Structures are given as structure tokens and as C-alpha cells.
Amino acid sequence: MIKRKGIFGGTFDPIHNGHLHIAYEALYRLKLDMIIFMPSGKPPHKTNKIITDPKIRIELVKAAIDKENKFTISSYEIEKLGLSYTYETLEYYKALEPDTEWYFITGTDCLMDIRTWKNIDRIFKSCKFVVFNRSGYFKKKVIEQKNNIEKEYGTSIIYLDIPVIDISSTEIRNKIKESKEISYLVPKKVEYILNEMKLYK
Fold this sequence. Notes:
Catalyzes the reversible adenylation of nicotinate mononucleotide (NaMN) to nicotinic acid adenine dinucleotide (NaAD). With 201 residues, this protein is of the alpha/beta class. It has a single domain (4-164), classed as HUPs (Rossmann fold, 3-Layer(aba) Sandwich). The protein is 43% helix and 16% strand. The chain contains 9 helices and 6 strands, in the order βαβαβααβααβαβαα. It has helices spanning 17-29, 54-65, 76-79, 86-96, 108-112, 120-126, 139-153, 169-177, 188-197; strands spanning 4-10, 34-39, 71-73, 101-107, 128-132, 157-160. The chain has a 6-stranded parallel β-sheet. The model has no long low-confidence stretch (mean pLDDT 94).
């Protein structure tokens, strides 16, 4: 029986309830057997930004997903040398498990910028590309971009029109700096680690 697995990439700096909401919606709607959270190592589009130590981000993701047996975490992108390119990650997993049907889960912001990604054609060959809606994007524009990319690359993109939980990692970091409440934005175990380590203060 063919397994269906999703790769959900991001900096997760920190992971929050919005990420978990997306992961569960993808898990159920796409009937996936597993979702692999993939904290990015050195994302090429964020080379000018300060990102929290990867070991800490891994610890935060582990704390967030520890009760869900269909969620797991991979340190592949963090452990590999150099910049983290999505096509390399997907090709690595496709070679590792050739009989698995791979899904790559990302947001509408990535779809809108997809032409700036490296080796886009190889990404589409390695997976079913899944895009979830995010606040700040008009659905009509997103569908228009989806249709254009599908025609251009001869592919099919899955659009997950899910209820939006408007939380961002930037918002959480800013709230912590301002000593504001974040318990309603992140899982309890994540909040505990953030407090213990005094992250983002």
C-alpha cells in the first residue's frame, strides 16, 4: 500500500498554533499518513535575517507535536551543509522512499513568489505541491497565479482553502519583547520553553 506523506517546511521561529492548525487540516483533507515538520537550516530567502539557533527551533517543534503520532520532525535541512533548497530536500526523500507519495505543504506567499525558487520544475516532479491560503491574499489572485504556474510547468497544484488562523512568528516574538501574553498563540509546552530560555526577550 502506497504511503502518503507531507513535508511541512518553515523556520518555525517559533512554531505556533497556526502551524498546527495547517498541519491538521492538511493531514485530514489530503488523507496523509504522516506529516514531517522540516525546520529550515539556511533558507536562501532569509540570509539577511537573524534566525534562532536550529537546535532550539527543533526542541520547540518537538514540544509542539509530541502528542500527535502522525506528526514527526526531520533535521535534514539543518544538518546539511550550505543553503536549504526545497528541490534538494524533496529529491532526497523521494530517493529515500520512492514508493511514497510525497506532498509539499506551503503558503500562498510562496506560490506568489515561486518563480524565484531554484529548480521549480524539479520540485513539481518530486511531489504534489500543496498551497494553503493565508491572510492578506485575495483568493482570485491566488487562483490566477495557480492556474498560470500549472500551465507554465505542466503540473497540478492543490489549493487548501482552510479557515485562516492569523498568527505569525514575528507577532509572537514582538509580543514577548513587549512582555505581552502569548499563551493563546502557542502550545503550553512551547510557551514553557520560551519562558525558561528567555527567548526573544
